[in-house]
Every structure is written in structure tokens, then in C-alpha cells.
Amino acid sequence: MVRLAITIMATTVSAIPSAHAQWAVYDAANHVQTVLIAARELQQIDNQITSLANQAQMLVNQGKNLATLPLSTLSSLQATISQTTSLLAQAQNIAYSVSSVEQQYQQSYTSVSSGMSDSALYSQAQTRWQNSVGGFEDALKLQARVVGNIPSDGSAMTQLVSASQTSTGALQAAQAGNQLLALQSRQLSDIQAELAANGRAAELERARQATNEAAAQAQYQHFAQYDAYVPETVAIPGSGN
Description:
The protein is mainly alpha-helical. The chain has helices at about 1-15, 30-65, 75-90, 100-110, 120-165, 170-225.
């Protein structure tokens, strides 16, 4: 821009004819100074335009960084967690509750004694068997739920990874990453629930076997208190003896 102004100035000065006494005096130096000032002002304006363009681009980039991710898997994750929680709440006979475990265990697993009647021993054995069967059924249903979540988890993971790779700004990429972490946390909670269900079923079965052994010992002690059978001679009518 400055070079252009100087070129214009030189061309103007060379085009001026020789001055005569009757003409007004032309101040070439002042003209050059004026052109230079105008050139510098034009350069400043050009710099300001460039600066404004850079600021506008920076605002556009900031807008991209602040744009939210249009994809959200929160509702599906919450629905899956609710389904798993509902299955845990449907635990048969002995629920996932400390007070429930203490009460049921006391009634059916630790109250066996030799003074109990056969009907009471049978009733407790039946209850323990039902608890074990129910525990295994609960574990199987929860395993089926966890396996059923795999296809939807795979679809959600594909969508989130794609959204992260095509994100227009930092916020969208961060939100996609956060949702992937939420999906992973939900999967870990599924594993935790499955381990709890499997452990519950296994412990119920071990407790049933141990209590059945105690019940067998109680029954033996119950019958052992009676005197052994002593054979006696019996007279049969009409035999002549």
C-alpha cells in the first residue's frame, strides 16, 4: 500500500509542468507528505480489517467449541439400570437386605435342634430348598438381562465413537467421552449385580447343604435316645408253645 502511494506521488510530480512566475507555487514536499500520511492511514485500516477478520474467526471457533453434542444416551442408560434394579428387587424369598437375610437365616438355617419334630425339620428343609432354587433362578434371569444388554451397548458405543470422531469442537468431543464413560460404568454395575446374584445363589446352596447336615445329625440324636429293640419270645395261639 505504501509503495503504491509513493508510485502515485512520483507519477504526479513528474507530470507537473514547469512552473512560471504567474502560476501558484506548488509545494511538492507537502504533497508527498500528504500522500504518505494517506498511505499510512490506509495501511492502518487494512490492519484493522485483518484484525477484525481474525477475531471473527476466533469467535466462530469458540462457537464450535461450545456447541453441545446432539446425541444423548442418558435415557437408555437410565432405563437399563432401572430394569436391572427391578430384577434385583424381585429377589425371591431372601431379598438383598441385611435385615431380611438375618431374619430368614435365623428362622431356616440356624434354628435346627434335636428337639424339633419331624414336620418342623421337613418344613425348614423345604424352605431352604425353595430359597436355593429361587436364588439360582434369580441369577439366571439377571444373567439373561446382562447378555440382552450387549447389542444395545454395542450400538450406543458405535454412535458415541462416531460422534466423538466427527465432533466440531472440544465440548462435543468431551460430551461423547463422558457418555462412553457412563456406558462403561453401567456395564460395570451389570457385572457387579451379576456377581452378587451368583454369589447369593451359591451361598444359599452352601448354607442349605450345611444346615441339612445339621438336621440329619439332629434327627439321629432324636432317634438315638430311644432304647434299642430287644427281641422277646412271643406265644402264637394254637401253636402249642
